[in-house]
Amino acid sequence: MIIFALIVVLFLVLLLIGFPVGFAAGLASFIGGGLVYGDIFDPRASAMIARLALSSMDNFLLLAIPFFILAGRLMNFGGITERMFGLVALLVRPIRGGLGHANVLASVLFAGMSGSATADAVGLGQIEMKAMLGQGYQRGFSAGVTAASSLIGPILPPSIALVAYAVQAEVSVARMFFAAIVPAFMMAAVYMAYVAYRARKENMPIGTRAKLAEIWPAFRVAILPILTPFIIMGGIYSGIFTPTEAAAVAALYAALLGLVVYRAYGLGRLARELLGTLIDTAVIMVIIIFTTAFGVVMIRAGVPGAMADFFVSLTSNATVLLFLMLILWMVVGCFMAQTPAILILTPILLPITETYGIDPIHFGILMTLTLTLGLLTPPVGMVLYALTRVTGLSFRELVVVSMPYVWLTLAVIVILIFLPGFVTFLPDLLL
To answer: Which of 118, 183, 309, 412 is most buried, by the most CB atoms less than 10 A from its CB?
Structure first.
């Protein structure tokens, strides 16, 4: 067991010195696989990794990943984000601090198309920052709410992280998608409550009520992109298509909007977005291949069993266990991106939860949501790094202005731990 603990340490060291996650997991997997057979140069270890690579890729659900990536890339190009934000900003204009609320609501809408926090922060964030600064909002407040609202992207379906968890945990993608809806809206609600508190405290701008003559043109150009999440979830719920097929429908719909309806780009731009999608998908698949192998090696080494014994020695209460795992996820999220962390931790931690009778859907939402916080926490904080160029603030300043939203998100997670019905209610009702 000590040897395999050293393999985990090797993996972490490789990450800290800058190795890509996939290659770090791959090297640790080859060495760990060799130790399973008693010799790190045993060719059976390589054969085992190759078999795991093929089996991990042979999954129909994984086809959803490139299609959702393509849909998000196409939706983030050609003025679609500006149309959405323009409509939402008009609707909340009479509210004090209205653009802060529009920031959150626009992220909710965009999350239903892209499923990516970074895409939200970079694409929609530029529009939001320009609008808020132009209306006299403080740069720090504007940057904080922009960073926080981007966290909704990886939670609200379609979400690549949820697909990754469903593949590893062998649970329904549809159930994961519907289970994430209420937690995502809870996040939006607490962010907007904080915006309202800051707006009243700091006497932020308040606008006039928009007239129908303003709303109708904005609604007409924004309604088609806004329909995307309803098409995806409605099709899944009605049984018209599976989650994987829904991803293909979303990509086709996004292409039709950009090419035919809005004529925002041509076939050349579509080809470049397809190439970008292939590159992004290849990166994710390398991570999936080697993190799956790493997880299996750890399972064969008995790591989950040892961890289960350790947790049982600490507590027999499922709620306490989830709080212990919450601490673990927060630490991991500070050093590793969300999706790779899910791919590595799921096969190791999920067997432990079965001992405690924890619903795997509830567990998956909690883990995904907590690891998402790593996007706003140093030293990784990918959203914060992306926003340094968008907001004009330093990384340190962004950490400070984002911290209230980190605590608010943690409050939502704690509520979900104590009240799992918020997670399981919707999938149980609809599916």
So the answer is: 183
